Amino acid sequence: MTALELVQGFGLYNFSLSDVHRPRTVEEVQALVARFKSEGRPYVCRGAGRSYGPVATHPGGAVIDFSLLNNAVSLDAESGVMKLQAGATIGDLWRYAVPRGFWPPVVPGTMFVTMGGAVSANIHGKNHYKRGSFCEHLEAITAAGPGGELIRIPKDDPRLEEFVAAYGARGPIVEIELGMKRIETGYFDVEGFTLPSLSETLAAFESGKETWEYQVAWIDCYPSGADLGRSAVHVANHTPAGEIPAGKGFDLADQEVPGTIAGIVPKGLLAQVLALFTFDLGMHAVNTGKFWAGKLLGHTRYRQPLVHFNFLLDSIPDWRRAYRPLGFIQYQIFVPKERGLDVLTEAIKLQHRLGVVSYLGVLKRHRADRFRNAYTPEGYSLALDFPVTRSNSAALIQLCRTYDRLVAEAGGKVYRAKDCVGSFERSQEFLALRT
Ligand SMILES: Cc1cc2nc3c(=O)[nH]c(=O)nc-3n(C[C@H](O)[C@H](O)[C@H](O)COP(=O)(O)OP(=O)(O)OC[C@H]3O[C@@H](n4cnc5c(N)ncnc54)[C@H](O)[C@@H]3O)c2cc1C
Predict the structure, then answer these.
(1) What would the mean pLDDT of 128-157 be, rounded to a whole number?
(2) Which of 71, 106, 261, 304 shows its CA 20 to 30 Å from the CA of 406?
(3) pTM over the 0.90 mark
(4) Domain range for residue 331?
(5) Most informative mutation of 14, 36, 46, 124 for ligand 1 (most atoms within 8 A of CB)
């Protein structure tokens, strides 16, 4: 056994002390899996640890960390299929694909997620209502079987279901083959505007569904009454060639997010400034300021590099340190469309009643997923960030447990990758996956 290491969920609230193994080759993965099997030792797979909760931690047990298994990356320009090892990240992916005229059909809000983590959570993006989830675009995966043997599973093989959103329960994925999207330029045409209420935001998502490839709304969770759920919405489409020259924006330099503001102030300072506001009144002020700044700007139209639009938060180095010492939890609830307004309204009102208001709320539109472990109904999701403090933890757990009931009663789901306070029932469901 190697020395124990601190292994954390992204929210810092969940952690374990584990012996961590970092294979660099597929053969090393195979050998590890065979060894764990012969020793009868359970293990947990880990990608980049970008899941907020405990899914990539293993108290007292072994962890196979795939972050160094990231060498082989290739793209067949004819078929548009990209092959990547499990530890390659979305960042590795776009840096290879954009100069060749391709973009991933589905990306999450951060580029640090690995391919293994993307399949195992079946991640979604801001275009879920149009393109579905990450695993809908898989051509094949290669997994290490229980004895370490390699198994290639093409997309029409029913065994693929066992790995999709299975959170590593079926063992390691070592490589994926992903169908990519061709792009004409490296830019989005973006529009931004504010809306005064949740009902108007949901209505805007419905009317924008056909027009826009991407839609996302930041929700200010503080106001009540007529202003409840007011938002700043961003919608985007790929900029076609003709508007600008074909291939413009394919240079990596056009996509990389600058490390400074106005070429002077290091972005690292932003996390420190953010930390000064990371308390209830401070975040109330930040949310209010953001809404009114958006309202004053009015309806804006601009062109933005693909990476800047999708991975905004990644440009602030280690922003989560604003939540130290106890960390934060994220909770993302998914509700069917017909229950969207009443359940999400109640979800925000509950925060007010319990005195724990989310510092950041993000609303997305979704479609139903075809996989067995699907968590996305045809409807909406609201992702919520809460700091964990000594004084709020009891109310926070009560809020999440009440959300569990509210969402279950409405026929919705909670996203496991962002479930930091998983209920007993959900732990049992997950254990059942492992058998
Ligand atoms: C800032 C931020 C924004 C985010 N935005 C979104 C978003 O918009 N949409 C979305 O869907 N998610 C989002 N997420 C969540 C994130 O996409 C998922 O949690 C994802 O699974 C993390 O991938 P990872 O590589 O870090 O995997 P980890 O978090 O390390 O692991 C996730 C799961 O995958 C399993 N796993 C990892 N690698 C392997 C492997 N090789 N073989 C088998 N199992 C494996 C682990 O056991 C674990 O159960 C966001 C996270 C952050 C921090």
Answers:
(1) 97
(2) 106
(3) yes
(4) 325-434
(5) 46
